[in-house]
Design brief:
With about 300 residues, the chain is an alpha/beta fold. It has 8 helices and 13 strands. The protein has helices at about 10-15, 60-70, 115-125, 145-150, 155-165, 180-205, 275-280, 295-305; strands spanning about 5, 25, 50-55, 75-80, 100-105, 110, 135-140, 170-175, 215-220, 235-240, 245-255, 260-265, 285-290.
Length: about 300
């Protein structure tokens, strides 16, 4: 039986669950191919050059904590992120003839646009001619699992990087309840501790090659553990994006040409092996994603059979 809770629109936005997002990031069910483990001596001496973005805005707690933690880990980090909160922007890209960009401090660029706009500006101008080794998007305030990931600006920023051939990781912090500001911000610390370990693992195994297979990124969701949010996750699972939407809109005619919008959370049983199941169990969900809408070979073959013989 499904369980429904009504959430205020403002909290839904904080969860990056706005329904106005555009093209989704398609999660693939297969795990990332793992090359042979490299010895510690093979670890690259030079730090990674990281473009750090998000959808909560360039001055949000999650991105600032990420900047501090990744920098402390030895990486060369540059923030190129939205000037304002862009939660729920998905993979949207602006088409205006001009864009406002501010450079309020060293290593920080604030783009008056979407996460995709920020990544595009960062790759084209800030890192012009010398692409970063990695784009990290987040950490987001609230989860980006199941249908939330489809409309997530955090995931959208990672997808923009993947579309340009740059490895990317989307980071989100949150459980399946309405995010509490204090515990969620506290949980960002273990989220980023895990992110540093993840990036270091990719560096070690990549040797001098790419961090991830071509076109593949990671959508990482870290749960909130403990009453204060500072607890340690129960483990990590390689997952896929749960197919349920999580959010269900309802529209009521006000009679004056406007419609009242109410959104409920419709949480059903998680799919086995999906991101929702992992986060529900207090585990970190790591879902491989790509930047296009291609299906797997089985669905391609089925579709081909369904439309075989059609003629203009």
């Amino acid at each position: 039986m499904s369980r429904k809770r009504v959430l205020p629109p403002a909290l839904l936005i904080l969860c990056t669950a706005a329904l106005a997002g555009t093209a989704p990031a398609v999660a693939v069910a297969s795990a990332v191919a793992s090359p042979q483990t490299a010895p510690a001596s093979a670890r690259p001496a030079a730090p990674l050059r990281i473009l750090l973005t998000n959808d909560d805005g360039y001055n949000a707690p999650g991105i600032r904590k990420a900047f501090e933690r990744l920098t402390a880990a030895g990486h060369d980090v540059t923030i190129v992120a939205p000037l304002t909160n862009q939660s729920g922007a998905g993979t949207k890209m602006s088409n205006a003839p001009t864009i406002t960009v501010k450079h309020p401090e060293p290593k920080v660029w604030a783009v008056d646009g979407t996460p995709g706009d920020s990544v595009a500006f960062g790759l084209s101008e800030v890192f012009e001619g010398d692409a970063p080794d990695l784009v990290v998007s987040g950490t987001n305030f609230g989860p980006n699992v199941a249908g939330l990931a489809t409309h997530s600006g955090t995931v959208g920023g990672a997808v923009a990087a993947l579309g340009s051939g740059v490895p990317a990781i989307a980071l989100s912090t949150g459980g399946l309840s309405v995010p509490d500001p204090v515990t969620t911000v506290n949980a960002m610390d273990p989220t980023l501790d895990f992110a540093v370990k993840l990036i270091d693992r990719l560096r070690v195994r990549a040797k001098s090659g790419p961090l991830l297979p071509k076109g593949v990124g990671l959508n990482v969701n870290h749960p909130v553990i403990g009453a204060d949010g500072k607890g340690t996750a129960a483990g990590m699972s390689t997952t896929f994006q749960d197919p349920q939407t999580l959010l269900e809109p309802d529209f009521t005619d006000s009679g004056d040409g406007t419609w009242k919008v109410e959104v409920t959370v419709d949480l059903r049983s998680p799919a086995m092996g999906g991101d929702l199941e992992a986060v529900s169990a207090g585990r970190i969900a790591v879902s491989p994603i790509n930047a296009n809408w291609n299906t797997g070979p089985a669905d391609h073959a089925t579709t081909s059979a369904l439309i075989a013989g059609l003629r203009p």
